[in-house]
Structures are given as C-alpha cells and as structure tokens.
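hey m, so remember when u said the tokens were messed up on ur end? i reran from scratch. heres the input so u can diff it against urs
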Amino acid sequence: MKIDVVLTEAEIVQELTEAVEARDLPEKFFYWSPLAVRAWLARAADPASGGLHRCWKELATKAKWLLEPFAGRLPVISFGAGDGSTDRVLLDVVRYAGPELKYYPVDASQALLEMACAGAEDLDIETAGIKADISSPMHLVFASDAAESPKLLLMSGNTMGGFDPLDHIKHMAQILHGDDRLVLDAEIYQTNGSEPHGDALRQFAFAPLAALGVSADEGEVHFEHKRDKSIAGLHVTAAHFRPDRDLRISTPGHEVLVERGEHINLNFSYRFTAEALHELLTERGGLRLLDEILSPDGRYLLAVCSR
C-alpha cells in the first residue's frame, strides 16, 4: 500500500492544540482519531444516505459518456475520499471500461486512507493514497499534480459542504484543466424544514472532544441552522459544544482550560438548493455543468462539470 504524506501527524498534533486554544476545530479533526473515524463510518452508514449512492450508481450507467475525454489512461483523484466506499460505486464499473485506471484517494485521515486504498486494491485497481489537507490550496495543487490531464476529479459525500463552498469551488476550478472532469455531489436543502441533527450527527460532531477525554455529560452539543446570504438558497448547520463546568482538556504535551459557558466551535455543513448549487458551480466557479443527477429522495444532487 502506497501513501504519500503531505500532511504529517506532527503537524496535525500541533494544530490540534492551537485549535482547542482557539475554541475552533477544523474539519480534519472530525476524521483523525479512531473514535472520530468510527463516528464518521456510523454516520456514513445511515440509511438516509442511500440516495447518495443511487446518484453515483446512475452515473456509473453513463460511464461510456463520462470517459469520452480519456483515451488509454484514466487517473481518478478523489478529494476527501474518506473510506472510498462512494468512489468505488463508480470505480467498480469504470475499471472495465477500457482506459488504464489509477486511483488517488486524498484525505487527512490515515485510517480512512488505508481503507480507501485497501478497498480499491481489492478491486485490482492500481492505487496511491495522498495524505493531505484539502482545505489548503497548496495541498489541492499537490494532489492534483499527482497525475497529468486529462483526469477525473471526484468529491463525494457532500465534501464541499464541509468547507466555505465559495472559496473551495474557486480553488477546485483552478486545478481543473482542458478535458478534465469534476464530479461532485451536494446535500439538498429540504424546504419542509427538516434539519440534520440526529444521534449519528451529534456523535460525529462530538467525537474529536471525546477523543481528548471530554465526557458527553460535561456539556451539550448545540446545532445552529441559518442561511448564508452570500448566495440565495445556501444554508449552513454549525455545531458547537458548551461545557457545563470548567474543563481542562489535555492535548499532546499541553493542557487547555475551557471555562464553563464558553463555546467550542465544532464542524459545520452546508446544504444547497439546486439553484444555489448551479450558481456556485457556474457563476462563482466558472465551470460548465455537463450533467446532473438528483437522488430519488431529493436529498442529493450530483453534478458533472468541466472548465
């Protein structure tokens, strides 16, 4: 198993202490510890995510069309690949389509990268993992440069929703060239008012603090839902933890005092109306929308884009 390391464990540990001191945990820490990985896997296995896989299965039926720009070779780079299970819905089909396939899963989590690599290797797909922070424009460029164009770029599991989507789509557009294709999915905002804050999401949001020894009975995870006015139809759910008592949180080589009533910002997730996603991709990202697939339950929208 080959994994190139751009983001080292030492860098993650140092940033963890700084993040706790700042009361603001970046996205990478929700996939880093074994406890966080288990919480993410449990959330990913939620039956409510079934529509997401249906989108990717339908895309797989269009493999011949999707692969038209690729002759002889097909490099697939997946940003925020997680355990690679969603990617493999597509890869399991396109590996028979003709071009020589090589898969590059990119993630900040060593454990999830190993799962993604192992899963692809079990399908006899040549694989090289890249341990990187996809919130960093420099890391995005490094990962993209792992293969020459034309290449197929993937972002599955509402990955873009875990970052500022306006910034992230601009950075993704900058690494897209010529006949490259970008396939991404997004979670669609439900106008019936339903909000994503079940037990699996709560455990996922709390997991980084639990890994540092914070107990669930020492405070409460709160979710805040609001509109992002930068684009009409853009909605964000942000989680934070408010302790009921003073806490001393131990990070490697350091202890941070968090006083009762303070807020520790946890993860956030964006959801989109279809119109907001179209504006984000075409007007803000400068991309061409080639195709889109709506899940049967209306909760996810998959888009195929080019420059």
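this time it looks ok to me. The chain is about 35% helix and 30% strand. if urs says something different then somethings off w ur setup not the seq
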